[in-house]
Design brief:
Distance between the termini: 27 Å
Structural class: mainly alpha
Order of helices and strands: HHHHHHH
Helix content: over 70%
Shape: globular
Largest sheet: none
Length: 158
């Protein structure tokens, strides 16, 4: 393990890379800014440097939300913390992602709703797709991936 320093630098870089697109788009083009943020998350999730593998977009989502709709940050962090408390971080993240659209629509109107959709869409697609094909590709398998961000075999002791 590399330690806390490299972890912190990596996390800050993941957040910062998702701020660049929305900032370049500017505040007068909210749909373009939200789309640029969603593309940054998608680029993180399906990194060409990792041959299409990648993360789940949590850190870049914080960058997009910081640039476009800051009330989404405590929603996402709250889901992470609650999920961690109950040892279900995948489910906590899913609940937070579900709460994002109503919270941002309430605080930022239509612009907030667009930001939420652009943030959540690549995150949900990555949860469903995973980094590999499932052993048993059924609707239940994909639903489990969406809700818990894992395959069933990941959660069952062998």
């Amino acid at each position: 393990m590399a330690g806390f320093g490299p972890l912190a630098v990596s996390g800050i870089a993941d957040i910062a890379k998702a701020v660049v697109g929305p900032m370049l788009a500017g505040s007068d083009r909210p749909v373009l800014a939200a789309t640029a943020g969603g593309c940054a998350i998608a680029g993180h999730n399906w990194s060409p440097f990792l041959r299409g593998a990648g993360g789940r977009g949590f850190a870049p989502s914080l960058g997009v939300l910081g640039a476009e709709a800051w009330p989404g940050i405590p929603v996402m962090l709250g889901g992470l913390i609650a999920g961690r408390m109950f040892e279900q971080t995948g489910l906590g993240g899913f609940v937070a992602q579900c709460a994002l659209a109503p919270v941002l629509a309430r605080t930022h109107g239509r612009r907030g709703l667009v930001v939420a959709v652009c943030v959540v869409t690549p995150m949900w697609l990555k949860r469903v797709a995973g980094n590999a094909r499932p052993d048993v590709p059924t609707v239940g398998t994909y639903a489990h991936r969406l809700l818990f961000d894992s395959d069933r075999s990941d959660t069952v002791a062998s």
